[in-house]
Amino acid sequence: MSRFALVTGASGGIGKAVCERLALDGFSVIATDLSAEDAQRVAAGLPGEGHCGYALDVSDEKGVGDLMKQIEAAHGALSVLVAAAGILILDDSGQRRAITETSIEEWSVTQQVNSTGTFLLLREFLRARRAHKIKGARFIGFSSVAAQLGGYRSSSAYIASKSAVLGLIRAGAREGAALDVAVNGVAPGLIDAPMLRLSLNPSQDAEIAQSIPQGRIGSPEDVAGAVAFLAGPDSAYITGSIIDVNGGYRMQ
Ligand SMILES: NC(=O)c1ccc[n+]([C@@H]2O[C@H](COP(=O)([O-])OP(=O)(O)OC[C@H]3O[C@@H](n4cnc5c(N)ncnc54)[C@H](O)[C@@H]3O)[C@@H](O)[C@H]2O)c1
Questions:
Q1: Of the listed 54, 152, 158, 249, which one is catalytic?
Q2: What is the pTM of this model?
Q3: Is 237 a catalytic residue?
Q4: DSSP 184
Q5: Sheet bearing 137-142, strands edge to edge
Q6: What whole-number distance in Å separates Cα of residue 126 and Cα of residue 177?
Q7: Where are the alpha helices (DSSP H) in the chain?
Q8: What does the pLDDT read at residue 153?
Q9: Chain-wide mean pLDDT for the chain?
């Protein structure tokens, strides 16, 4: 039986690495992002067969529901959904805003994409697996070490949105269990991907790496490896967990 995995934010730095890893692990990957062309380009470059790309704005309630129905009608039941899409809004000089400088627009848009988007994807995935149960389905959400630490230098909207994902993963794990859907997440630390590069110049890497026990910034492939574990057979008895992918930057 072919296994289908849908990835959101698939043309981003981490999302693309997740698509590549899941394709190598034998999944047919449905790559989605805001731009259909970008998603299709990612899908076309993956090893193996059966991949495709679609436009999806994760903050669009109707769009998420419609695409899930369209995909399941065209390809069959999804076994894995990876909610990697996310945004971080900075000010004009590339700095994270303090709470006192955060507009309601920045707050709302960030929640809408990062937390509401994850909710919409989880809800539609659970509905789909309730309608058509399959064995061992997986939902994997994206939080951040920023949520666990209270951020590095403010950006409360992002921190709060990624904290909501932590709670949603646990609530989803409880409800998903009866549907044989394991719901887990990853909390990346400092990862060499576009979102980090909005505010960190590579010339600062060596200095930052001194505060990371493993002594380096992470790679998108480091995160993709954790996602692959959560999507694969070895994590069958894990649900409601968050895997920290941070080189020891933050330990529980
Ligand atoms: N890079 C890091 O250091 C880091 C650290 C912790 C968590 N994360 C999380 O990892 C994920 C990927 O981060 P990245 O660094 O690869 O970022 P990125 O900016 O390269 O990728 C994010 C992707 O999400 C897409 N996207 C944005 N808004 C969307 C929407 N409304 N609907 C659908 N897609 C949308 C973008 O087009 C982009 O392709 C994000 O959820 C981010 O919060 C990243």
A1: 158
A2: 0.98
A3: no
A4: E
A5: 52-55, 28-33, 4-8, 78-83, 137-142, 181-188, 242-245
A6: 10
A7: 13-24, 36-44, 61-75, 104-110, 117-131, 145-149, 156-176, 194-197, 205-209, 220-231
A8: 79
A9: 96
Residue 19 Cβ < 6 Å to ligand 1: no
Q: Given the structure tokens 């694969």, which residue do they identify?
A: 232
Q: How far is the CA of 158 from the centre of ligand 1 (A)?
A: 11
Q: Is 124 helix (H, G, I), strand (E, B) or coil?
A: helix
Mutation test residue for ligand 1: of 7, 14, 62, 186, the one with most atoms within 8 Å of CB? 14
C-alpha distances (whole Å) from 185 to each of 84, 118, 129, 230, 237 are 10, 11, 19, 8, 14
Amino acid occupying residue 155: S
Write the pLDDT tens digit of every residue in 38-94: 999 999 999 999 999 999 999 999 999 999 999 999 999 999 999 999 999 999 998
Supply 174's token pair: 């409880």
The minimum-distance atom of ligand 1 relative to the CA of 188 is 6
4-245 is classed CATH 2.30.110.10: no
| 161 CB within 6 A, ligand 1 | no
Which of 8, 38, 87, 200 should be mutated for ligand 1, with most atoms under 8 A from CB? 87
